[in-house]
Structure formats: structure tokens, C-alpha cells
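C-alpha cells for chain A. Residues wanted.
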């Protein structure tokens, strides 16, 4: 049951969206609602620097999203590791155009614990921690 009327969601797209469908399966139950949609055009959608964001949600069970920004066309590798450095899953391993990206990671078959995820491009590397609690 969703009893909150005012909620804000932000979505980042690599290209101008042509349509937005909200809750197409009618899975959200609401008491009263109004829906206002718009597109904020605050300049360019191309990021000005490389950035690996903290996964959301964190801690997670068992799915989380990892967002990253690429300011120019680059070969991108995004890999999840355990704390011993063992590669768990390669999420991205390809050329990407500049933009903002989001990748979903499902740890359903993994034990609870701390995991690392590493973003590597031609000119940038960053590592962050995430916690899965079952």
C-alpha cells in the first residue's frame, strides 16, 4: 500500500525518451494520486567526468543497481569481486558511448557479505564496496 502522494524519481537516459509508461501492470496500490511528468533540460546529458556511484540500495538483498558516468566514448569493464579478490561476475565488458549508465547486479546465489565492484576505462579506475545481507 502506497500512502505517500508526493514522491520524486529521477531517471537518466542516454538519449531523449519518446515515451514513459508508469506502472503498466497496475502493481502499485495507491489511495489517491496525481502524476506530473516532465523532462528537465538542464544543459547536456553527457557527464563531464568519469564517476562510479555507490550502489543502490546498499545493503541489498539480492538485487542492487550500480550507476556510472562516462564522459567520452571508452572501453568499459565493470566487475564484481569478493573480498579475497576472486572475480564473481563481469557486468560490463564493451565499448560504451559517453553517457550515464545503470547496471543491475543479482547476488541471489551468493552468501551474505561485503563485495567490491570495480569500474575500469581507458583513463579511469575506481572501486567501491557493497554489502549483501540475506
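Reply:
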Amino acid at each position: 500500500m502506497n500512502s505517500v502522494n508526493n514522491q520524486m524519481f529521477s531517471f537518466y537516459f542516454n538519449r531523449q525518451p519518446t515515451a514513459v509508461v508508469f506502472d503498466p501492470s497496475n502493481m502499485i496500490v495507491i489511495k489517491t494520486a496525481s502524476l506530473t511528468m516532465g523532462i528537465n533540460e538542464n544543459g547536456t546529458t553527457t557527464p563531464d567526468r568519469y564517476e562510479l556511484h555507490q550502489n543502490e540500495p546498499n545493503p541489498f538483498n539480492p538485487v542492487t543497481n550500480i550507476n556510472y558516468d562516462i564522459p567520452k566514448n571508452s572501453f568499459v569493464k565493470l566487475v564484481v569481486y569478493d573480498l579475497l579478490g576472486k572475480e564473481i561476475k563481469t557486468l560490463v565488458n564493451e565499448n560504451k558511448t559517453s553517457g550515464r549508465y545503470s547496471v543491475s547486479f543479482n547476488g541471489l546465489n551468493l552468501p551474505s557479505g561485503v563485495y567490491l565492484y570495480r569500474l575500469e576505462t581507458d583513463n579511469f579506475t575506481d572501486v567501491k564496496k557493497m554489502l549483501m545481507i540475506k
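DSSP finds no helices and seven strands in the chain. The domain at 51-132 is CATH 2.60.40.1930 (Immunoglobulin-like).
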